[in-house]
Amino acid sequence: MLENDNPTIEPPGINPEPPKPPIEHTKKTVTARKADTVDNIQELGTTEVPTAKTNIHVMTIIGQVEGHMILPPQNKTTKYEHIMPQLVAIEQNPDIEGLLLLLNTVGGDVEAGLAIAEMIASMSKPSVSIVLGGGHSIGVPIAVSATYSYIVESATMTIHPIRLTGLVIGAPSSFDYLEKMQDRVNKFVVDHSSVSERKWKELLFKTGELSRDIGTSVIGRDAVSYGIINEIGGLSHAQTKLNQLIKIQKETKGLKQ
Amino acid sequence: MIFWSILPEEYVFSTNNLLDSSPLYEEIQCNNIKLLVEKMGPTQCKISRLLTTNPQDYLLPDIQPGNILTYKPI
């Protein structure tokens, strides 16, 4: 510790010495305090660091959506148990006004993915999603669950039926069961985007588009023209839209009260 | 569980990698921010990912991914 870290003021009269120039004091204390803060963060994780406040929180969904089963370590995953409490916290925190969802996913657990999508869709705060790189399989329902969705021009979304590349573990693998699971996904996507059920099913069961499979790989602009995604755009578009939605929500709230 | 992905099943559920020494990950709380860290020994770990939704947290210089943290007794 520095000598003058915590200077005390002597009672007047006892010490006839004139006080040292105050500039030096302040400098020393500031540097000492700075070092303390950094040490505390690194060692104890205690000191609160003043950070810029933000009213928009961001959630990245990357790799596989992981739900009931822990996937082998070579997979990059987004875990259900991380996302769900974060969504609850965002909904509850009055300082947070909007959610930005960044998607780059290859698929994953259908039920975990649907759960995340339903949670986002049922939030009272506005949300905007951006599909970057790829939003495949279960990424599609998550992308459309946001209030407004964007896709960058280079991104693709693979729309394919569950049963063909889907792996069934510990569930009755009857055709009916898969059919019902597929129906739940279909219904969610059709309800939360402007794609018609006919078009969606056509994309789902199209042959000849994918080498391994039936299904369609939909690229940015096509996703918008089919009505799955609202608009082509990146970060600045999403940010502007989100601010707009927040403003609209504030105004409507004001009217109700 | 029904798994729906564009990645082939044999890739996602391959168990070959279990034989290799894949890094051991752990979730820790540092300065009220949840971090996913790679254990490097009994007292050290390397930050691999931040598990927070606050975008400003990602700018904090002390918890950038790749930084090495040392556990200290309180």
From TrEMBL, chain A:
Q: GO annotations under biological process?
A: proteolysis
In what ranges is there compositional bias, type Pro residues?
A: 9-21
Region Disordered: what ranges? 1-25
Q: Which organism is it from?
A: Pelosinus propionicus DSM 13327
| InterPro entries in alphabetical order | ClpP/crotonase-like_dom_sf, ClpP/TepA
Q: What domain of life?
A: Bacteria
Question: What is the name listed in the Swiss-Prot or TrEMBL entry for this protein?
Answer: ATP-dependent protease ClpP, protease subunit
Upper classification of the organism: Bacteria, Bacillati, Bacillota, Negativicutes, Selenomonadales
| GO MF terms held by the record | peptidase activity
Q: Which Pfam families match?
A: CLP_protease
Kindly state which keywords UniProt assigns to this record, in alphabetical order. Hydrolase, Protease
Gene3D superfamilies, A to Z: 2-enoyl-CoA Hydratase, Chain A, domain 1
TrEMBL record, chain B:
Q: What is the superkingdom listed in this entry's lineage?
A: Bacteria
InterPro entries, per this entry? YlzJ
Q: What is this protein called?
A: YlzJ-like protein
